[in-house]
TrEMBL record:
Domain of life of the source: Bacteria
InterPro entries, alphabetized: Aldolase/citrate-lyase_domain, HpcH-HpaI_aldolase, Pyrv/PenolPyrv_kinase-like_dom, Pyrv_kinase-like_dom_sf
Pfam families: HpcH_HpaI (PF03328)
Presence of keyword Metal-binding: yes
Family membership: Belongs to the HpcH/HpaI aldolase family.
Source organism (scientific name): Termitidicoccus mucosus
UniProt keyword annotation of Metal-binding present: yes
Protein name (database record): Aldolase
Gene3D superfamilies: Phosphoenolpyruvate-binding domains
Amino acid sequence: MKNNSLPKNLALAKIREGGVVSVYVTGNFASPRHVDFVARSGYFDAIWFDLEHFDIPTQELATLCLVAKASPVTTIARLKATDYQVVMRTLETGAGGLMCSMVADAEEARRIVSWAKFNNPQPAPGEVTGQRGWNGGNIDSGYAAHPAIEYMRHQNTETMILCQIEHAQAVENAAQIAAVPGVSGLFFGPGDYSASIGLPGQIGHEEVRKAMAKVAAAAHAAGKFWGTVAVGPEMYGKAIEMGAQFLCPGGDLKVMTLSLRELVKSLAGAPQKTLAA
């Protein structure tokens, strides 16, 4: 018998069970085959599409999300949630969550939640509602294959809303942002934060780590999860010790760079032939 139920958000389920979600980021080389390759590897629970720094049109994002759905991988779209239409259209591509960049305060977080959540007249216990516009005929609804209430409840409860904390003001407001109903968790951006305090690229600096600890504490106090970019085993391990459950060790650019280096190393010692002049 055909299973026509709406898909569970596997990354969110893992977090709810106390697990750690490993995330791969792509923007430079975001293509269907690249997504398929990463998703099939089995190494990652989620793929983060970087719409903030790269121009990935809505229709292209929808294709990338559809490719990822063939594997047990959750898709996350990172973007600056500047308006309702951006949030709504992104969710209708079937993305399992939004990573909202440069969130400054609780008021901004509340606007994002309102744009992302439906006004379900029959909310389940703990379900947060909002004012998202109704369509019901897109990818996230299975093309109108589900009853309206079922679809609304699924989107309201199974879509991740992450607020990125990336500058000093946001760190100070992290507790209030985390406490907003409907915010799933916080994501600390060490690169942007280091640049914002005049230490560009120094993601391991003590001041950056202090800020990350504040974000972790804010998330824990609100009963929410948190995550970050964790480059290398030392930083990854530190984040785990601090209770991070959503960790990105890197993505396409790092993979391409390391692979090229390994390819060159594989030729070390091989005979080199030069053409005669």
